[in-house]
Input
Amino acid sequence: MLWTLDDDRDDGVLVVRDPYFETVAPVASTEEATSEEEGLEPDESSVYSWNHGIGEVISSVLDAGLTLTGFVEHDSVPFQPFPGAMTYDPATGEYRLAVRPERLPATFTLSAVKD
Output
């Protein structure tokens, strides 16, 4: 769900912009890339991605002949995707929404075994 959000609004409100389910066409965005170690200037790069709903991910695991042994959704993420909208939790070392974090499944942990 995290990758469906738009954080480019002037009012700072996070809204769902991109599709949750996989689509034929990719989601196109522009991200600033830098390589400070090499002394390069920031550069904008086009990024193309496809979102995959949880059902699609779990179905793919099962279709591959794996046995699902665990699945947990988390309201936190180990990096800062939305500066200003998320706060750092030193107890977990992760970021979550500053306001009502229970609204967003930010990441998940899936475990499976091959029989």
Notes: The two ends are 30 Å apart (CA to CA). Strands lie at 5-6, 15-16, 27-33, 43-49, 66-74, 76-77, 86-89, 94-97, 107-114.
